[in-house]
Amino acid sequence: MKLRTLACVAMVGCALGAGTVGAQREAREQNLRQSSVTSVGAFVEKWQQRILNQNLAVADPQNWAARNLAKFSSFSAERLALAMQATSIAEVEALLVAAPVANGTSLALLMATKPGNISLDALIHQVSQGAVAKADPTTAPATYADLLFTALNPCRIMDSRVSQGGTGPFVNGVQRTIKIGPYPAAGGGYATGAGAQGGSATGCGLDTLASGNQIAAAMVAVTSFSQTGSGYLTFYSASTADPSVTVVSMFYQAGVVLTAFVVMPTDSIAPVFSRGISRNANTEVTIDIVGYFAKPHALTFDCVASGFTTTNIPANSMNFYDAPVCPAGYSATTPYCYTNASGVYNQGSGLNNNVVGNTSFCAWQNTTGAAQQVNSGSMCCRVPGR
User: Fold this and answer.
1) Higher pLDDT pick, 84 / 355
2) Does the global pTM surpass 0.70?
């Protein structure tokens, strides 16, 4: 689960000894405490101590903070606020989810291979019925073969909790409408206005989709919690019959926070909707969109340079710096990081989660006693399927 794809970052132990890794981590955490994102460092430090003190069940507990600091640092203010409100490690780690497949992945391939970490049952059932009453591109089920994946920064499109602006838990046997979008931030996003469902006040990166029939299916991370018993959730197109008597998207049980990746069919008519239903018990539900499947917009690579951001990195510090945003319709594919300064070292580079108009980043460490100049840029391409 990655929000930033690091090429080689010394802080997480890329070909370095344990002592060096610890020193790098300490330097970066110290820099965070001195920066404008103090809340990130304080939050991660608090949870690292809680994990160790309470022996919480996480992978590699000693290095949890080091592994996740870059992810939390990349969060929007809104998503960081959600993390700050978390009361359990399960809720915290649910916020770290990102798309489990790469950009450009064919939906038809996923349907054929049925990977174990993604629930596709509702979509496969819908296609098998041969009566998909939806707008283009899914009038004919065979056209699912043309749909490719675009990843998004994880963004909450639904939160059933009344305290978070939702309308209450999914009630056993009661159908719920889920708006997928695009819903512009100017209209309140998913949080306010008609059909508010307790989600983000932003458009979740979907505002650039000009027409409603572009999202034929959404990849979402569904989290179930505060259940009244054991049961299951089913998600299906708003224009098809409820298949939940025989089709399961994810199971849940009382008292356990569970998260699953689900490919959620949509009705493909602006604004795009899906539906969800719980069976056998009630449950609170959050839904984070991590990407969507749509017809490809580009058939060949077409690349331009983003230009460079020139920044002065403070003395004796380590920081991430973003390159300029790619032109509309282009995606960052390769980061460029360079400096002429002595005593300044590149600690890695990567992509800020592949979304249209995204950037790359460079991580720098300045070991000198004075501010030094560094430069960050990207190669931006129209990627097939984007």
Assistant:
1) 84
2) no
